[in-house]
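Pilot study result, target chain (192 residues):
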Amino acid sequence: SFTSDSMLFDEITLSGTHVPAQVTVTQLTDTTGMSQAMIESYKYNVTDGTKTALFHTGIASQFYENFFDITADDVIKALPAQEDLESYGLSDPYCTVSLNAGGVRTTLSCSAKDEEGYYYVMKKGYNVIYRVAADKLFWAEYTYADMATSLLYAPYIYDVKSISLEFETGENYTFETNTPEISEDLVVTSDG
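Predicted structure:
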């Protein structure tokens, strides 16, 4: 498990009209069977309520840094009325991301991207509509599939002791390593 100092955030939730179910990223708590390298690479789980996978720490870091470093290109409307929210696609947001870090929750909602490549964005607690370039919100199109790693508890290369290959022709090969620890002198042999 991890100390709270090593974690960027406690939770991210992603919802909106572009995802069929809310996606939630939380701190990884069960590290059974994982090498230390895997634990460092995957400090988070991601789930859509039916499936759970690992969320890579590098992507989590990019997500976190981007989330708090967004600069709007324009202020569109202060104190928007319901008609304004509907007009700018924010009455039923395309994407809503809520990030909880250190007990402080920050929520951004955005419209679908317009034809000029901008999103209309509102921050919860601020009654203002902003216009933000799409390249500043790389996560606005994310779904569970984009966030889930396809390698569920994949072995770290130095944890692999042997690999066996069996072919339909009946040929079988076993490759074994000689090094139980991380080393630049890794030697792999085939069948002895």
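One observation from the pilot: Residues 1-5 have pLDDT under 50 and may be disordered. A full batch analysis is planned for the follow-on phase.
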